[in-house]
Amino acid sequence: MKTGTLITLAIYFIGMLGIGLFAWKKSTETSEGYLLAGRGLSPMVASLSAGASDMSGWLLLGLPGALYLAGLSQAWIGIGLFVGAFVNWVVVAPRLREQSERYNNSLTIPEFLANRFPESAVMLRVVSALVIVVFFTVYTASGMVGGGKLFETAFAGLLPNAAMSDYQMGIWITALVVLTYTMIGGFLAVSLTDFVQGVIMMLALIVMPLVVMFGPGGSGGDSLGQVPVPGFLSLTHGLTILGFISAITWGLGYFGQPHIIVRFMALRSTKDVPAARRIGMSWMFVCLLGSIGVGIAGRAYAQRNGLVLDDPETIFIMLADLLFNPLITGFLYAALLAAIMSTISSQLLVSSSSLTEDFYRLFLRRNASEREAVNVGRVSVALVALAGILIARNPSSGVLDLVSHAWAGFGAAFGPLILLALTWKRMTGAGAVAGLVTGAVVVAGWIALGWDQHLPGMSAGLYEIVPGFITAWIAIVVVSGMTRSQPRVALS
């Protein structure tokens, strides 16, 4: 490993830990400070924090890998996500910011749902918290896999006599750095580090495709048409109806991602939403375009220069190592770690908040002090991280596969629930519980039956978020209609 790369990474790690210490002094005295940064995020920080925590390692590993293998038709995932994110900012963001504060200053998504539907408060808090902890453990594991793959590919042999493999070492280093600043600084540390990491990710995704195409060995993009994959540059070649639906419906997941929509709750005010939306969507457009460019241009570069890549999800790592000065390579590796760690930290904090507010304070210590609750939250962060490390032990795990399952689980369980809770005054608590359970169960069952890969009698599968989202929506409407005698709630 080149010294310059290690120096850059060391500076990055120290910077993240420094932000954690800064946040520790600012907003960890109360649960609201630790879990929502006192509802004081600026539009710039909130939007980039939402984006960075959203994109995770799949932006620099999973999506480029899919494009590297199959071509531009895989870009429909990114298109679906962009549309979904925009609708999320327009529909969910302003309503959730206003209503979460109005309903007894709710600090977590389960707490908001319980305050919105008091007749089913306990059931909603428990079930939603269980869904959050289970799916986020899997989601966190995807980030650990990304860290493991980085160290396995880029840092191979750095410590040849170590007791663990390069992959395992990558998992532990990634986890320990994230754990440290998250446990110390809480939501403010996570949001500020996300902001910095979002800037790093954007810069890397601007630079990388340009250098790959126009730098040495890149041929200015002329080799894009030489890739021996039929329809490599076509958005529609080989795309079936099921494949198109499965790709474009990734956007449905946005409405139910607790680690993203909690940023809306932390904004300074509803008036900041339009500015945050403009910043966040601009950032997302640039990053998705860059990620698509890495996969497409990376495959052309590999073809032109006779490079063989065993794992397509490591194309970003390979290009960073081959094409850049060691100091810049370290910056690009930091961008990948930024994508991974920004998401892990957000997921750990949301899981921790559910364990603390929706289990510990609800069942074990109702009168727990603010300091005690913050400390329990820190312990919960560590427990969820350890569970994620255990799941990520298999180096053959696919980042995109793990992310897709967790994304679908949240999108189906919480998506219809959040949308209707914010916009439909005739929804009831029983309907909310029915939708939450139905979405989670259908997604889990769909995956267990393998129908996400192959539907019965067909060669292709359907992304599990589609049946999960539809059945959850139907369950909410039907059950709410059957229990409509309960008190209605006025919505803004």
What does this structure look like?
The protein has 492 residues and is mainly α. The protein has one domain (3-404): Sodium/glucose cotransporter (Up-down Bundle), CATH 1.20.1730. The chain is built from 17 helices and no strands. The protein has helices at 3-26, 31-36, 43-55, 62-70, 76-102, 109-116, 121-154, 166-214, 241-248, 258-266, 273-304, 315-323, 326-364, 370-391, 399-423, 429-448, 465-482. The longest helix has 49 residues, at 166-214. The protein starts with a helix and ends in a 10-residue tail after the last helix. 58% of the residues are buried.
Quick description:
With 492 residues, the protein is mostly helical. It is built from 17 helices and no strands. The chain crosses the membrane at residues 6-24, 75-93, 122-141, 169-192, 199-219, 239-262, 283-302, 322-344, 373-392, 404-422, 429-449, 461-482.
From the N-terminal CA to the C-terminal CA, the straight-line distance is: 57 Å
Q: Given the helix and strand composition, which structural class is it?
A: mainly alpha
Q: Give the helix level as a range of percent.
A: over 70%
Number of strands: 0
- DSSP summary: helix tally: 17
The domain count comes to 1
Largest sheet: none
Low-confidence stretches: none
Order of helices and strands: HHHHHHHHHHHHHHHHH
Radius of gyration: 22 Å
Please state roughly what percent of the residues sit in beta strands, choosing from under 5%, 5-15%, 15-25%, 25-35%, 35-45% or over 45%: under 5%
Function: Catalyzes the sodium-dependent uptake of extracellular L-proline.
GO molecular function: L-proline transmembrane transporter activity; proline:sodium symporter activity; sodium ion binding
Transmembrane segments: 6-24, 75-93, 122-141, 169-192, 199-219, 239-262, 283-302, 322-344, 373-392, 404-422, 429-449, 461-482
Organism: Qipengyuania algicida
